[in-house]
Amino acid sequence: MDTVFKALADTNRRKILEILKEKDMTVGEISAHFKITGASLSHHLNILKKSNLVISQREGQFIRYSLNTSVFEEVLKLFITLFGKE
User: In sequence order, what are the residues at sequence separation of 6 or more whose Cβ sits closer than 8 angstroms to the Cβ of residue 16?
Assistant: First the structure.
């Protein structure tokens, strides 16, 4: 869970998650929303993948990224457990 919170701590990574909420995208499609280098975007995507917030799937010569909603469900359950009313 620590890797999830580390991933969520960065503004660019949260923006990537917001973008992927709309639809699955390739790196090129994601990069159209940013003014950062390809290397920097790749770094952010790798952190999101390591935290399992994002899943990648190869489609020919492209890699398509999508949200891993099961991890978001786990985070939500944690927050409900920690801060929910009983």
Answer: 30, 44, 45, 48, 54
